[in-house]
Amino acid sequence: MVKISTRRAFRTAGSRICAWLCLVTIGEGSSSKNEREQRNSTFPFQDRLLAEATSATLEQDVITHRDVFCLIANPWSGLAAQLERELAWGLQDYLPETVALRRASEHAFQQLQEVYQLGDNPTVLLLRSGLNYTYQGELRSEHVIRMIQYVAATRPEDLPVRNLKSMEELLRLVKSADVSVVAFDRCSNLAGEQLTSSDCAQARLSFDLAARQFALSPTIRFAEVLDELTIAQLGVPLDREHTVMAFRAGRAPSVCPECTVPMLRKWLEAEASPLVTRAQVNVFPGVPLSGLLGEAAQQRRPVAVLAVHRIVPRGMMDADGELVDDAQDHDVNEKALRGTASLVNLERKRGRATLMHEQRPVSAEAQQTSSEATGTADAVHSPIHDVAVEVPGARTRSMAYFYIDLDREVVPGSFASKLGVTALPSFSIWNTSSNDVFVLPGFQPISDRIEEFVEEFWANRLTPWVPSEAEPHTRPESKLRATTAAELEQMLVKCPLNNSTVAGGGAEEHRSRDHGSGTCVPTW
After folding, report:
1. Element housing 67 (H / E)
2. Same domain flag for 303 and 439
3. Please, what is the average pLDDT of the chain?
4. Which of 32, 119, 371, 492 has its CA 20 to 30 A from that of 109?
């Protein structure tokens, strides 16, 4: 009598199951034709999107496709199997002809690991123009799909390092990414003539290698600046030939202490640590804020606005770029950002928060049409453009969330000021159906009170607040207050203030004007 080990039988059965579940195909030789057809019918888009790849077929794919994404993972990786299924369904409606999506076959797995020096974890590899880049982001299908869309809509010369030629391009980059890593290079002048030693060349090589490693992260963008005027304006240290800085929402600019490959990689990993992303708070710089809020008003969608200081003033940092003691409000700003992002994620699960814009690659004709409609060329700030999502009905149970940078976007007469946003951090809700604006005062505990404030709005328990003549210059510490957009509009017409007034006297001068004379608008 022949005894069959239970463990061996389980292992055999597991191999057959993983033959169609796992990212890397195993046991293919023992699969019959009917089994393969049944497997393919289970995931009808899988073979079209995720064809098997060997080292030989990858070389051919590089010739016939501009971008080749190859998924490489250990045969027993359940994470890779889940990722494969989600990608198969997530990309069925979008896969550019210039993109080829492949998975490593079993017999090519070890070879590809050795060639590209990969570990045992699931890996997304991009092959473009003879170079290879490894995806360093979180292995979630939505992140990988967003990365594929971004790469497909980006010019080859912009990966991994984009060359910036003006301050406008630099600001557009900083606003369009969660983390912007910029190398300020004085190794050569604007004419491209080498000025310094081999140490500078080594620093540039380190930056290029790091950029190739992190280029496919969904949150990091790399760029290089040669403009001395731009360097001076940003306060980049002048004692170095090659300086690498990171710009991130909610934090002060950070300078890499040393540009060697190990130090640069460690520094980038720290800078790319999870932080609230603009997509979570629905921030899309490059498009005028008034245009975004105007679209929300047309859709009759309630609008929530979080106003904080995104960038800490340079005077509040020491020589190493660290925050000093009098920058304590920075932590409050970041806490409010994190709290709002968590609330947005929770509200989206409840079906009460839907991003008003979503990032999609669009054609040149669509970009031109959008630019003409908004009246500004800044409306199209990248190949991935913000496309409005139509919301039918006069009233919707979803709220659009916006983030306002108090250091840049709030000036008297702007759309933000009409929502009650001033130089003080705040959280506001604009009911576009009734034109009521509700403002949660008192910024210190704001992150703990936002969720309760939103719940009261949905329950219609908020009472509009109208500023009184007796207290024209103060923010009352009541639980809620509001004024109508029409009243704000009328007050702003009575007291037009230009940007020079704000720049010269700031908020203090604004508050000091006489409200009774009819020539001033009170700042709350």
Report:
1. strand 67-72
2. yes
3. 59
4. 32
